[in-house]
Design goal:
With 313 residues, the protein is of the alpha/beta class. It has 14 helices and eight strands. The chain folds into two domains: 47 residues; 252 residues, 2-enoyl-CoA Hydratase, Chain A, domain 1. Strands 1, 2, 3, 4, 5, 6, 7 and 8 form an eight-stranded mixed sheet that branches. The longest helix is centred in the first third of the chain and has 22 residues. The N and C termini lie far apart (42 Å).
């Protein structure tokens, strides 16, 4: 897949294009290989310069990067023996939420997450990662199943928000989200939440109540998208960058106000540049916190979860 560059990465794109052109013409020519090595050092230096001072709006763009790893990618790289479970047993199987039983280092867990899809056909099938009520009811069913069999729950958040169409409202979108919040707040099994891309509104929160909440370095988490906030406050979506700053959607701001517990460092340039490295980091985060949570009595976990919710705001 050809690498996609964001607007602020254009200088980086030019260097990489030069490297690719020289590689195609090099034919092991020592002189050209020297030029390539020099350009690679320039690329690394420029990448460090760009990503060491990203604005909040630029972080929003990185969180939405079309090549960023999705839940299905993490399931393949982090877990083994994944068995997908389908349907909410009421209406349909919403494929914008993927979930099932998997194993990680000998621990059986329930994995649930938003799935945006990759190619056009898959994106349409997944509704671009925006769940309908049946998606959240499927997630609730799987969480209750996990509770019954003492399986820790691992959720992956990456959605612009719940589907805003009239069909969702007709089938009880707000009720489905609210019920999930209530169920997760008292679920008698450990819950680890990982925000991997954009965590938008109630669509993210519906699978976002947990004992430990981690967020990737360039991911975002907010009550609404910056565009929606700008449209409400300034009556124009063009002020989205100002809204992003004001809403404190970045991982660095969220950890200051104790909305999240941990920031998972991404590969230089974003998670999409090294799936293996970011998957290893996510795996380490899960294993470290899973061991801690499993060692605690469930009543202590529930009490800590309750206090955590009360302290927000």
């Amino acid at each position: 897949m050809k690498e996609h560059f964001l607007d602020f990465e254009r200088p980086l794109a030019e260097i990489i294009e030069k490297i690719e052109a020289l590689q195609a013409a090099s034919n092991e020519d020592p002189e050209l290989l020297g030029q390539i090595e020099k350009l690679r050092k320039e690329e690394e230096k420029l990448k460090n310069k760009i990503f060491s001072k990203l604005s909040t709006w630029q972080k929003v763009q990185v969180a939405r990067h079309p090549q960023r790893p999705h839940t299905s990618d993490y399931i393949k790289a982090v877990f083994s023996d994944f068995i997908e479970l389908h349907g909410d047993r009421q209406f349909a199987d919403d494929q914008s939420i993927i979930g099932g039983i998997a194993e990680i280092e000998g621990n059986s867990v329930m994995v649930i997450g938003h799935e945006k899809g990759r190619e056009t056909e898959d994106k349409v099938k997944r509704n671009f990662g925006m769940p309908q009520p049946e998606g959240y009811r499927k997630a609730k069913r799987l969480m209750q199943l996990a509770e019954r069999f003492n399986l820790p729950v691992i959720t992956f958040i990456d959605t612009a928000g719940a589907y805003p169409g009239i069909e969702g409202e007709e089938r009880g979108q707000s009720e489905a989200i609210a019920t999930n919040l209530a169920v997760m707040s008292k679920l008698r099994t450990p819950i680890i939440v990982i925000i991997t891309g954009e965590g938008g509104s109630g669509g993210a929160l519906a699978i976002g109540v947990g004992d430990h909440i981690a967020i990737l370095e360039h991911a975002t988490y907010s009550v609404a998208s910056p565009e929606a906030c700008a449209s409400i406050i300034w009556r124009t979506a063009e002020k989205a960058s100002d809204a992003a700053e004001a809403m404190k959607v970045s991982a660095q701001e969220l950890i200051k106000i104790k909305i999240v517990d941990e920031i998972i460092k991404e590969p230089l340039g974003g998670a999409h540049r090294d799936y293996k490295e970011i998957s290893e980091s996510v795996r380490s985060c899960i294993l470290k916190n899973l061991g801690t949570l499993l060692s605690k009595p469930i009543e202590d976990l529930l009490e800590a979860r309750y206090k955590k919710l009360l302290e927000i705001g």
